[in-house]
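Fill in residues.
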C-alpha cells in the first residue's frame, strides 16, 4: 500500500541519521532486522541473467556494498560459514565465544587472540584480488561506480586498483594503527613486525595496547560512512550487494537505504536481508566469481575483466 511504501521509505532514509544522532553507530550484530525482514523471498526476486545484465548496462551511478564472501576466492575465509569460516576455527584461541576476538572490551583484557589471528591474516603477499574485485575495477573504469562500501579489512579492492575516493572501508583498515587508550598513532611497520614475532604491541606513551585501525564490536564506524552513505544511496540508480550475510549493523542498513524502486542486485551464496521485498530486486545465488563471469559474458565485458586483472597483477609484481 502507499502507506506501507511511505513507512519503508521513511525507515530507510532515517536509519543512518538515527545511528548518528543517538550513538548506536557502533559495530553490532543484529538479532532482528531493523526492517523486520530476514532471509529474503526468492519468489519475488528476478534471477534472469539477461534482465540483470540489461539493468546493469543501463545503470550509471552504482553503489556496491560487500562483505567477506567477496574475498573467499582469494583464499581468505569468511566469518560465518559453518565449517570453513573464521568463527568456526577459533577453538585454538580459547575464547568465551567466537565474536570475542573482535570485541574491544575483550581486547583490552587480552590482546593475544586477536594478535595471533592478525599474524595469520595480515594483509600482504599472501592474498591477491580475485575476479570479483576486478569486476569493481571494471565498473569504475566504465564510469558506473558511484561508491564502494566494504566490511572487509583485507585491502584487496585497493590492490585491484579502486581509487581511494571511491572506497569507504566501513570497518576500518590495516593501513594505520593507534593506542586504544590514548589514541596515539603507532608505526604500522613496527606493529606488523611485533605481531609477526608473536609480541603484543603496546603504546610508548601510556602503555596501553595497540591495534590496527579496524573497527571492533563496541567501536564507532568511521565518520565518512555516515557522511556519505545516505546521499550515495539516495541518488544511486542501482545497488549491488556482494558476499555479505547482512548480519552486522549499521553496515547492513545500506541495503535498505536506496529508493524503494531502485534496482537492487544480490550476488551471494545465499538469499539474505530484505531481498524480495521490493519490486526491482534481483539475485544471482551461488558461487560469486562464477556469477560475475556470467554477468560479464552477457555484457561482453569478459575481455575488460581479464585486461584489468592482467594489467594490475603485472603492476603488483613490479612494485
Amino acid at each position: 500500500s502507499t502507506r506501507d511504501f511511505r513507512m519503508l521509505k521513511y525507515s530507510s532514509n532515517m536509519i543512518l541519521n538515527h545511528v548518528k544522532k543517538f550513538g548506536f553507530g557502533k559495530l553490532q550484530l543484529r538479532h532482528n532486522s531493523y526492517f523486520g525482514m530476514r532471509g529474503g523471498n526468492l519468489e519475488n526476486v528476478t534471477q534472469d541473467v539477461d534482465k540483470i545484465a540489461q539493468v546493469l548496462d543501463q545503470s550509471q551511478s552504482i553503489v556496491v556494498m560487500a562483505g567477506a564472501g567477496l574475498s573467499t576466492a582469494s583464499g581468505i575465509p569468511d566469518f560465518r560459514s559453518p565449517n570453513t569460516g573464521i568463527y568456526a576455527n577459533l577453538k585454538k584461541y580459547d575464547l568465551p565465544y567466537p565474536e570475542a576476538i573482535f570485541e574491544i572490551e575483550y581486547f583490552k583484557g587480552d590482546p593475544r587472540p586477536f594478535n595471533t589471528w592478525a599474524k595469520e591474516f595480515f594483509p600482504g603477499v599472501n592474498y591477491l584480488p580475485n575476479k570479483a574485485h576486478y569486476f569493481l575495477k571494471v565498473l569504475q573504469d566504465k564510469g558506473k561506480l558511484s561508491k564502494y562500501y566494504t566490511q572487509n579489512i583485507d585491502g584487496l579492492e585497493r590492490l585491484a586498483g579502486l581509487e581511494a575516493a571511491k572506497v569507504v572501508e566501513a570497518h576500518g583498515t590495516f593501513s594505520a594503527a593507534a593506542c586504544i587508550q590514548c589514541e596515539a598513532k603507532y608505526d604500522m611497520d613496527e606493529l606488523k613486525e611485533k605481531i609477526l614475532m608473536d609480541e603484543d604491541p603496546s603504546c610508548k606513551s601510556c602503555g596501553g595496547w595497540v591495534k590496527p585501525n579496524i573497527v571492533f564490536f563496541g567501536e564507532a564506524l568511521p565518520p565518512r560512512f555516515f557522511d556519505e552513505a545516505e546521499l550515495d544511496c539516495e541518488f544511486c540508480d542501482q545497488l549491488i550487494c556482494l558476499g555479505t550475510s547482512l548480519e552486522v549493523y549499521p553496515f547492513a542498513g545500506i541495503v535498505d537505504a536506496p529508493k524503494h524502486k531502485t534496482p537492487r542486485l544480490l550476488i551471494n551464496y545465499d538469499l539474505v536481508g530484505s531481498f524480495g521485498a521490493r519490486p526491482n530486486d534481483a539475485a544471482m545465488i551461488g558461487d560469486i566469481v562464477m556469477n560475475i563471469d556470467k554477468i560479464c559474458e552477457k555484457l561482453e565485458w569478459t575481455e575488460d575483466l581479464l585486461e584489468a586483472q592482467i594489467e594490475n597483477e603485472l603492476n603488483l609484481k613490479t612494485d
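Confidence is low (pLDDT under 50) at residues 1-15, 18-24, 30-38.
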